Amino acid sequence: MSIATSFRMPSARRLVAATLAAGLLLATAACAAEEPAGPAVKTPRPTETALPAPPQPVLAPLRGTIAPEGAMKRPALAAKIDNHEGARPQLGLERTDIVFEELVEGGLTRYVAIWHSDLPDEVGPVRSVRPMDPDIVTPFGGIIAYSGGQEVFVDMMMNTPVVNAVFDFDDTGLFYRDDVHESPHDVIVRATELVGRHTELPAPPAQFEYAEASAVPTSVTEGPGHSALQLRFSDSRWPSWVWDAAGGGWLRSQEGEPDLDAAGAQLRASNVVTLLVEIDEDTFPDIPRTLMIGAGEAWVSSGGSTVHGIWRKDSPAGSIRLVSDLGTPILLAPGNTWVELVPSSGSVEIIP
Questions:
Q1: Is the Cβ–Cβ distance between 273 and 341 less than 8 Å?
Q2: pLDDT tens digits, 127-170
Q3: Cβ atoms of residues 328 and 89 within 8 Å
Q4: 249-258 long-range Cβ contacts below 8 angstroms, 24+ apart
Q5: Whole-angstrom Cα distance, residue 258 to residue 94?
Q6: 169 DSSP 8-state letter
Q7: What distance in Å separates the CA atoms of residue 234 and residue 246, rounded to the nearest whole number?
Q8: Which residues are 232's β-sheet partners?
Q9: What SS3 state is found at 233?
Q10: What average pLDDT does range 308-317 have in this prediction?
Q11: Are residues 24 and 18 in contact, defined by beta-carbon separation less than 8 angstroms?
Q12: Residues 280, 19: Cα–Cα separation, whole Å
């Protein structure tokens, strides 16, 4: 049996087309081999944009609380604040870092109030300085605002390294008289504007030591808990502080009545530092001078407890040091502080 195999011869046209295609491919390959290779093209990587570092937390020097980095670079502002009945309610006391209450003539008291971490637009009413004020203000540096005073006291303040802003000498509009209080209890200072004029001044150094956020103040670790403090400067001034457990602070009263801010809220403090001080009644007739350079008894109240110890201040520029009866530095609770400069002729009562 024979098997027949059949096939077709390619046509002449197809043969020519195939031959031409093959030749074209060979020619293209040859040309590609003869041409020099160009520079290599690199695909650019996306550029990395450096993100600004987030603000690092720092401690507010006059409160011991956390604050954003850079927020604490301004100077402290101190002001001599009136505490006459005609000056109440005062502006800005609820936003202070530290307040000193001092005895003045007539058995009355006035304040040296310090703002740094929280600066109101306006504070007051401001009044005149007294001979102990330079020793109180100098450790803070920065600025002091007041209405004036006896020439000798103004000269004492002018001789400190603190910038003086004085109502009696002001012709730039930093001070004005308000319509709420009667003269002379009506002088207000534009605090934000005043501080803004002195951005070259450094921030204040810390004045007290504070417990860290995870720790507790020394008053709690070494002192008994109690409900209130009753202080007496004179027969005319006897402030008191009552512990508010719900609010975590001490509530202030004066002469048995709640001490209110301009918004009607009771003034409060995280710490009440009570210093028993001597009074010089001879150097300046009729003007008592609290002796700030020296040492004496101290009571530090924080967290609903009070620890007893001693205070010491060695120089006008030196800060107040607090040591407990056990010999340990007293750590305050983070927050604002009122310093009560109670005369040795007065009294301090801890109420259970």
A1: no
A2: 999 999 999 999 999 999 999 999 999 999 999 999 999 999 99
A3: no
A4: 249/335, 250/301, 250/338, 252/338
A5: 13
A6: G
A7: 31
A8: 347
A9: coil
A10: 98
A11: no
A12: 124
CA 340 to chain centre: 20
> How many Cβ atoms sit within 10 Å of the Cβ of residue 182?
10
Distance CA 111, CA 91 (A): 12
- For the stretch 59-87, pLDDT in tens is 999 999 998 777 789 999 999 999 999 99
- Per the structure block, which two tokens stand in for 212? 């860290």
Beta strand pairing call for 98-103 and 109-115: antiparallel
Segment 26-50, tens digit of pLDDT: 334 443 444 444 455 555 555 556 6
* Burial 121-133, CB ≥16 within 10 A → b, else e: eebbbbbbbbbbb
b/e map of 238-271 (b: 16 or more CB within 10 Å)? bbbbbbeeeeebbbbbbeeeebbbeeeebbbbbb
Nearest CA to 117 out of 74, 146, 81, 78 is that of 74
- Of the CA atoms within 13 Å of residue 112, those in its CB half-sphere come to 24
Assigned token pair, 182: 């009667």
Provide the CA 47 distance to its chain's centre, in angstroms: 40
| Segment holding 151, helix H or strand E | helix 151-158
Of the candidates 141, 159, 149, 157, the residue with the CA atom closest to the CA atom of residue 198: 141
Which one is predicted more confidently, 242 or 16?
242
pLDDT of residue 13: 39
Contacts for 54 with CB less than 8 Å, ≥ 6 apart: none
How far CA 331 is from CA of 190, 210, 221, 306, 324, in Å, comes to: 33, 5, 10, 12, 10
Torsion of CA 290, 291, 294, 296, to 10 degrees: -30
